[in-house]
Amino acid sequence: MLHATDPHAGLRTAVVDWFAASARDLPWRAANRTPWGVLVSEVMLQQTPVVRVEPRWRAWMDRWPEPADLAAASTADVLRAWDRLGYPRRALRLQECARAVVKRHGGGVPDDEAALLALPGVGTYTAAAVLAFAFGHRSVVVDTNVRRVLARAVTGTALPPPSPRAAELALAAAVAPRDPAASARWAAASMELGAVVCTARAPRCDACPVLHLCAWQAAGAPADEHRGRRRTQAWAGTDRQVRGTVMAALRGSPGPVPRASVAALWPDAAQLSRCVAGLVEDGLVEQEGAAYRLPG
Q1: pLDDT band (50, 70, 90) for residue 227
Q2: Does domain 239-293 have CATH number 3.30.300?
Q3: DSSP label at 178?
Q4: What is the phi/psi pair of residue 292, to 5°?
Q5: pTM for the complete prediction?
C-alpha cells in the first residue's frame, strides 16, 4: 500500500539500505562530527574530489577545530593550509564565515536556514547540506550527484541538464521523505550513490541497488541529450593554471617573492600580469614594493 501512495518509497529504501552497507567511512560522517566540521567539508568538497579533500580536512580540523580558531588565524596561514585544493577564494570565504559565526552566533554554527544563508560563502546547497548532515533536519539537498541519480532512476535521462531546472528541484523535494531523520539519510545515500556508482562517465550499473527500478535502464540507456551543451574544464595553459602556479610559489616562500621571480613563473607575460592583478583584486595576494606575498 505504501508504494501505491508513495511512488518513490522503493527507490529510497533500496538506496538507503545500500548506503547502510556500503557508505565510505568519511570523517565528516562520523558520530562525533561537529556542525563546523560538516560546514568545512562541504566548502572543501565544492568542485574537489573526496580523495583530495579528506587529508586536508583532517589537518584543517586538527588545527582549527572551532570557528573561533579559524577566525583568529592569519590569512597567510589559511591560504597555506588550503594548499592545492583549488579555488582558494573558498578559503578566504570560509574564514569570513568563521568570523561571522563568532560575531553573530557566539561561535556556534546556526541550525536555521536563513541564518546559514546569511553567512559569507554559504549558498542554498551548502545551507541545505549543513541542516541535513550536521543537524538531522529535513532539507532537500540537491548536488550534481543527486541530480544525476534522479535523472536516471526517475526521469530516464542519461544526465540532467547543465543547469538545474525548477522541475528537478520539485522532483527532489517530492522524493525526499517528510521525516527529518529519514530525509537526512536519503540525502546522504543518494549523494553517495551518484558519487561512487551512478557516475557521469562510467556508471557501474551492475553494482547499482536500484537497477531494477531505473527508468534510464528501462528505456535502453539512451545517450545524453545535452551532450553538445556540456563543457569540460581545461587546465593546461589556462588562467587557472597560472593563478595556481603563482599561489604555489607564494605558499612555498617564507617571505615576499620578488617581482622578477614571479615574472619567471610563466612565459606569457601579459597572461601572467592579468592573473596576478586578479589575485590581488581577489584578496589572495598583496603587493609589497617590488615583491608579492600572501595577505595577513
Answers
A1: low
A2: no
A3: S
A4: -125, 150
A5: 0.91
The residue with cell 522541475 is 167
Is 42 an active-site residue?
Answer: yes
Per-residue pLDDT, averaged over 199-212, amounts to 96
Q: What is the reported pLDDT for 228?
A: 56
**Own/partner pairs for 130-135, CB < 8 Å, 24+ apart?**
130/35, 130/38, 130/39, 130/42, 132/183, 132/184, 132/187, 132/188, 133/28, 133/29, 133/33, 133/38, 133/42, 133/184, 133/187, 133/188, 134/33, 134/34, 134/35, 134/38, 134/39, 134/109, 135/35, 135/111
Domains in the chain: boundaries:
239-293
Q: 269, 263 in Cβ contact below 8 A?
A: yes
Position 3 scores a pLDDT of 47
Four-residue CA torsion sign, 59, 65, 71, 72 = negative
First to last CA, the chain: 62
For 91-113, the pLDDT digits (tens) are 999 999 999 999 999 999 999 99
Instruction: Identify the residue with better confidence: 253 or 229.
Output: 253
Tally Cβ neighbours within 10 Å of residue 225: 11
| Cα–Cα distance for residue pair 37/91, rounded to 1 Å | 14
Asked if 36 and 97 touch (Cβ cutoff 8 Å), the reply is: no
Mean pLDDT, rounded, for 194-201: 96
The grid coordinates of residue 181 equal 531523520
Identify the three-state secondary structure at position 238. coil
Is 213:10 a contact under the CB 8 Å cutoff? yes
Question: How far apart are the C-alpha atoms of 97 and 116, rounded to whole Å?
Answer: 10
Q: Which of 42, 96, 281, 288 is catalytic?
A: 42
